[in-house]
Description:
Helix content: 25-40%
Radius of gyration: 18 Å
Number of helices: 7
Amino acid sequence: MFNNLATEARQFLRASRSAILSTISVKYPGYPFGSVAPFVLNHSGQPVLLVSTIAEHTKNIISNPRVSLTIFSGEDDLQASARLTLLGEAKLIEKTDSDLCGRYLRYLPQAENYFSMHDFSFYRLAIEQARYIAGFGKMGWLDIEEFAGSDLLSESELASQEAAIIEHMNADHIHSLIAYCKYYSHLDVVDPEMVGIDSEGFDVRVKLMSDLKQQIVRFSFKQPIHDAQSARMALIDMSKAVKL
């Protein structure tokens, strides 16, 4: 599925939702300060974090926006598992972007109460460097343009069309989402809900039929899509493969 290390790293990032954010401490100058950081990717493939103005890491960012974000798979043996470190600048963005707010809350609905509070803000990580460790002997610093992907360097029409695509799939094609999970991920699920779609794939929140445990399942497209029409064609192709 993956052509190279950069592509694999990007897919790893797409399937991740939490990380450790390291900032440069104001309280203890020269020392890095690490904190847990849930994030959602925007349609340019940049991590977006919702943080409080009173948080220690936010004070550090205001003083020095250069940060590091370390994403790991969460498996028991962390040293044997994949992980990705992103270096870049944290940039303040407004919470007035309704498309971004909707996307963030679909992935992290538990953050809804924070949106009404004045002391919470969005920051996006403008990625400048990336290092990926896929496993023993398979690691390296990545070419940043190759890691970003040419189709991800600027916002596509998907940002404004995403909500409508998701609403349509969740209203009219639940059976397709169940079939995708069975065919592509070998999972028997109930109550599937598409939560996001991007140029390289889409994400579905499901409950496993075996124990009703909830998780998000990632699906990748064979070719990048850029708008609602190309998304429709990609989903139709997937349905043909599962013989719906």
